[in-house]
Amino acid sequence: MKKANHKGFGIATGINVYFCDPHSPWQRGSNENTNGLLRQYFPKGTDLSVHGPADLKFVEQRLNNRPRRSLGWDSPAERLRGLLIAS
């Protein structure tokens, strides 16, 4: 298994890397929100191995094109597109 190399990533990008405390979901709100959105398609305990690539791609497209309040009502896809165009 590869190591994440968070220290190297931080140095190379100038981005601070933080780790949340275990069992502290309030420290990772965006992650918890995304988990909730995924649960709309895959309830807790769902066996993901029964879903093919097309099923997963469908959910990916829906979530990446869904506007988010945390992004000023842009979708993640719109934000990524804007970042890629700006660079």
TrEMBL record:
InterPro entries: Integrase_cat-core (IPR001584), RNaseH-like_sf (IPR012337), RNaseH_sf (IPR036397), Transposase-Integrase (IPR051917), Transposase_IS30-like (IPR053392), Transposase_IS30_CS (IPR001598). PROSITE patterns: INTEGRASE (PS50994), TRANSPOSASE_IS30 (PS01043). One of its GO terms (biological process) is DNA transposition. GO terms for cellular component: cytosol. Residues 1-84 form the Integrase catalytic domain. It comes from the Bacteria. SUPFAM superfamilies: Ribonuclease H-like. GO terms for molecular function: DNA binding; transposase activity. PANTHER family: TRANSPOSASE, TRANSPOSASE INSI FOR INSERTION SEQUENCE ELEMENT IS30A-RELATED. Belongs to the transposase IS30 family. Required for the transposition of the insertion element. NCBIfam families: transpos_IS30. This is Integrase catalytic region. The lineage of its organism: Bacteria, Bacillati, Actinomycetota, Actinomycetes, Micrococcales.
